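G., the chain you wanted modeled:
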Amino acid sequence: MDGATVKNQGEVKFYTPGREYYFEEGCFINELSNEPDDPAVSLARARVEPGKTTRWHYLKQTSERYVIISGSGLVETGERAPAAVSAGDVVLIPPGVRQRIHSAGPGDLVFLAICSPRFQPQNYVDCDVPHPALDE
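Predicted structure as tokens:
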């Protein structure tokens, strides 16, 4: 079967740990699926080391969902108070809403970041400013 025939029957994207990279936001990212031919959604595995907090940021024209896989943390969205999150929890983040997450446990906080439409770097906006909730 040629590639097009296989692709029309579905596709399996295999996890490759070596593709993980450090992102300026303050976490490690492994892009699991983020392709121009699938513009509706992207999926990344994010990892925040213990005691670390990502930078305040928001995404233009992109909704994001965090699905917590392992570890525990505190997430902040918009002006909401920090919320404790752990495995199985889902965080819904509308476009344009600032966000950050802190790894509060003894191990890494690992979550899936699902963006719709797919994540594109030009939609990422760093808006980190001092904020008392997690900066102390």
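Residues 82 and 119 are 24 Å apart (CA to CA).

Shout if anything looks off.
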